[in-house]
Each structure stands twice: as structure tokens, then as C-alpha cells.
Amino acid sequence: MIYAEHINKSFGDQLVLSDVTVGFEEGKTNLIIGASGSGKTVLLKAVAGLHKIDSGKILYDKTDFTALADKQQKEIHKQMGMLFQGAALFDFATARENVRFPLDFFTDWSLAEKNDRVDFCLERVHLGDIGNKYPSELSGGMQKRVGIARAIVMNPRYLFCDEPNSGLDPQTAIVIDQLISELTHEYNMTTIINTHDMNSVMAIGEKLVFLYQGKKEWEGSRDDILHADNKPLNDFVFASEMARLLKNPIS
pTM of the entire structure? Predict the structure, then answer.
């Protein structure tokens, strides 16, 4: 489990996160939701150690990550997988080389051992035949799946996904959601997903955290969200649904 306690984060004079306290549960898909500018991306990256917080604590299974020295933090970083928005693949590297990158950086495995693990992960995301292709030769959905393979190649305990469905068509987005959910339960990971996609919320959201103007406004399950008595949340859900309908009108 990951527990963020009284997190505050500013960039210059702009307060982005204000006294946010929330727990992210093991073996579940934990979704951070909210409108653009609500602070959800900053919270995700702060919990993952990509942003240094101004105050508060981030606990990984009762270990205070924020109090650790760099070397100790690196040991926890080895247990993390990260799926970046847009997949963030290296254009100059093949799919296999992209997936192998964390193994090259964090392990002293032989090349054969690394390649075996890479091939397993590519097979797991149903891309076993594209290892020698470059990102420019892959569709957006395939690039995201390569990104997922890279994120799980170290067999992480913690998986972070930043807007995993950004730029994808609805059908491909469903495939990505299902894959992330399957892997979360298969490997019992603590998965944290930053999204504003209500389709993802209703399909795979087990624990939901709604941010509004940098504060935790509401938390609950996907079963609770449609009956929540919270105006900012209700406005967000309504606006998200209207945007979906406008983008994909019923013919």
C-alpha cells in the first residue's frame, strides 16, 4: 500500500496540491480523477518520486520514502513501473530495446536473460511479433502496449500510469484499460492511474480519488460515484459525459 499524508506542492507562487491525504490500495486499480489543472498529474508524479514535495509524507508499506537517502530511494524505484503519457518510447530504439531499458539500467543480468524477460513481457501484452520494429512503425495503441511491457519488465510492486488512454480511439482505450486491470490483479500491484476518462473510471476504477483545485474533494468506489452528494464531482462527471457524447455521437 502507498499512503500520501498531508501533501503540499507548489511551483513558484502557485499552490498545486494542498494538504492531500489519501491511501492507494494493493492489488487494486486506484484512479486519480479531476479536471485539467486539478493537480492529479502532480500528485501521481509526487507519489512516484518524480516531483519533490514541499511538505508531508509518502509511505511505501510504512517506509517513509520522503525521508530516505537517494540510494535507499533507488531501491524503491526498482520496484516501480511507469507508463508515461504518450508512451514516451525512444524513437531510435526498437520495441525490444525500449522494453529492455530498465533491465539495462537496474540489473546485471546477461543479455540472454534480459531478452527472455523482454520477450515474455511483449507476449504478455500480445505483441510478441513486433520486437524488432521501431515506434514509428507502430500504431498509438501498440506503442502504449510496448510502454506497458516496459513498465512491468522489472516485475514491479507499484505501477503508475499517466493518462494511459490519451490520444487513443475508444476501442483501443478499452483494450489498454483491460490490460492494465488484468496485470494489476495478476501481479497484485498497487496501480495508480491519472485520468479524466469516465469510461476508464466506470470500467476499471476500484478506488477513486477526485481532486478539485488542488485538494482531495472526494474518494470512494465506482459504485459510489454516480450517487455522490458532491457538486464539484457531479459537475465533473456531467461534463465528462457530455464531452464523450460530443466526441462520439450516437448515430
Answer: 0.92
- CA 157 to chain CA centroid, Å, is 13
According to DSSP, the residues that pair with 11 across neighbouring strands are: 14
Only one residue has cell 456531467, namely 238
C-alpha to C-alpha distance for 216 and 133, rounded to whole angstroms: 42
CATH, domain range 90-195 = 3.40.50.300
- The set of cell numbers assigned to 62 is 510504512
**Three-state DSSP state, 109:** coil
Mean pLDDT for the stretch of residues 103-107: 91
Residues of the chain with CATH 3.40.50.300: 90-195
Give the pLDDT band (50/70/90) at residue 64. Answer: very high
Rounded to an integer, what distance in angstroms lies between the CA atom of residue 89 and that of residue 147? 7
Strand partners, 57: 5
Matching residue, cell 489519501: 22
- Please tell me the chain's helix, strand, coil percentages from 3-state DSSP, rounded to the nearest 5: 45, 25, 35
